[in-house]
Amino acid sequence: MEPKKNTSALNERDGVTQPETLSTQVAKSIQQFRRKTISSDELISKILKGDKVALSRAITLIESTNPTHLSKANEVINGCLPHANNSIRIGITGVPGVGKSTFIEAFGKHLTSLGKKVAVLAIDPSSSLSHGSILGDKTRMEELVKDENAYIRPSASGDSLGGVARKTREAIILCEACGFDTIIIETVGVGQSETAVHSMVDFFLLLKIAGAGDELQGIKRGIMEMADAIVINKADGDNIRKANLAKVEFNRALHLFPLKNSGWNPKVTTCSAITKEGIASIWNTINEYEILTKSNDYFNHRREEQNQYWMLETINEQLKNQFYNHPEIIKALEITKQKVLTHQISPFTGAIELLELYKKL
Amino acid sequence: MEPKKNTSALNERDGVTQPETLSTQVAKSIQQFRRKTISSDELISKILKGDKVALSRAITLIESTNPTHLSKANEVINGCLPHANNSIRIGITGVPGVGKSTFIEAFGKHLTSLGKKVAVLAIDPSSSLSHGSILGDKTRMEELVKDENAYIRPSASGDSLGGVARKTREAIILCEACGFDTIIIETVGVGQSETAVHSMVDFFLLLKIAGAGDELQGIKRGIMEMADAIVINKADGDNIRKANLAKVEFNRALHLFPLKNSGWNPKVTTCSAITKEGIASIWNTINEYEILTKSNDYFNHRREEQNQYWMLETINEQLKNQFYNHPEIIKALEITKQKVLTHQISPFTGAIELLELYKKL
């Protein structure tokens, strides 16, 4: 069937077929909803009732770069805050090609079949360039997107990882207030985005596949160290033997790392997002982790640490934004750069000059 | 011989035997020099004449946390700047145990034997805790420390890697103005300090040893990618075969990385700091690198990029320092942290409140 040409603003990207769930009727009601401004109190009360449209709208508010939206976004977040925090937050990373979407689809469906409410968010710092390479095309999770107990939201876009991550971090609060008890944060296995995801989740899952060049990525010490579980995906058909070998390897590698503060011993398992083999046991592992870390109080302690971390990160991010976006600084920076380039002043003096100018503004 | 108990301020640390070079006479002249204040013009003119005592004093000025020293430090740096830049800057990293000090001693002696003037600096972000675990004990480089064409300076200490790195970066300028044509920056192979060193050198050398657990560290992708040469140290005696095997492995691993912007093909070599085998050829490699990157203009282009980078890094560092060291912010931060901890406000709102307070101060 040829997709109907749709010129509405809901049709965010050319070339992407609208998901079937977006019927004309729903589209119309969303449009009407968007047209009318809504108070933060109304938004909060709808979110607390589990209204996914209100949730989406509030997340859009958080993501907005329009400064007038900032105070309203804050009101909504603070209104939701007392109702948040009751969830397990799971980070999932893996290099492209490892089958993250298929895995999350299978894993998410398993959770909703157990009566869980699952929200899937993403952090993709490259999304401002690629317009969302992960979760951008929601139809990659065909089943989950139609599930009424699931909510899928692509990565916010932004200039900096810090900004993108901060927005996702706030979206978690809203999803929890909306009744989602299992929050999955997906990220792509390149760059610093894993560290950002790790700093906002309770459980960090590293998705791998056996073979081909993967050894190199596998022994990326920093990410291995963060993992609470390593799951070797695509363990089906001819791949099963290789996956089991990889499992032995990773188990050995993990033993080289010191014991975690959580007291948790990271697990290595295999699974197939296609045959569903091993999917249920991953959820059991996460449950075991939750029981352990709640009994030894690591769970809450870590969430408190994460809150502190995010407050400081936001401050650091905003200090820079305010400086570099100041029109006088934008002008002066160009001149100073030139002076440094021509060795008239040292980079350090250039910095001091700009900082002194900034103080006077 | 029992070292004489020395109570002068020159005896910076207990338990460290004074290097033999520090004769009573020299000590006295340094003390006299230190007692009298010296203008920045005098300091600059002495540095330009190759005076190592003046150089040390200027570096101490840079490292000072006393705000009144800041403008004088800036004067000295800017006065030295036109005479800096004529050197090759070499970064050397490797995990503890790889034999960095012994290697730098052998390599540095080789360079001075060729008529080079060698300055060895260090970046050790842990130095404020350990009081300088690398280069802290200068006697580890017994020969080089006595060489009149060498200058060795331990890592600055500081709260943050950014601060420590910035000070080393400025020290490079002073060393160059003082006539040192080969600058070696040592760092320890843990954490983010390699990235800092990489951002201030022309050539980045990764020191390794063959065998035992090293595979894991070796395939730390980020650092491998930065390396312009991988040198397998301790290739002597029974180790030679293992070192040659490791060489083959690393060569293979390097081929997986994309071509560098410099056009340079990273080299893998073996060496022994004890037998001196392979030391001379490392210097030849660095010369080849310099010729290539000066002919394709990458050398200067990269130094300019590094200057820009360091200006922005300094700004970012200072923006944070000014904020977090403000007495009103120190007080308010504690209260806000408590409100975030008790879920009264979100981390984001806490950040915004503090930033708004800061604007009014």
From TrEMBL, chains A, B:
Transmembrane segments: none
UniProt GO molecular function: GTP binding; GTPase activity; kinase activity
Superkingdom of source: Bacteria
Gene3D superfamilies recorded: 1.10.287.130, 1.20.5.170, P-loop containing nucleotide triphosphate hydrolases
Pfam families hit by this protein: MeaB
Compositionally skewed regions (Basic and acidic residues) per UniProt: 1-15
Disordered: annotated segments: 1-21
EC number(s) from the headed UniProt entry: 2.7.-.-
Key words, A-Z: Kinase, Transferase
Entry GO terms, CC: cytoplasm
Alphabetized InterPro entries for the sequence: GTPase_ArgK, P-loop_NTPase
Family note: Belongs to the SIMIBI class G3E GTPase family. ArgK/MeaB subfamily.
NCBIfam families: lao, PRK09435.1
Stated name of the protein: Periplasmic transport binding protein kinase ArgK
Gene encoding the protein: argK
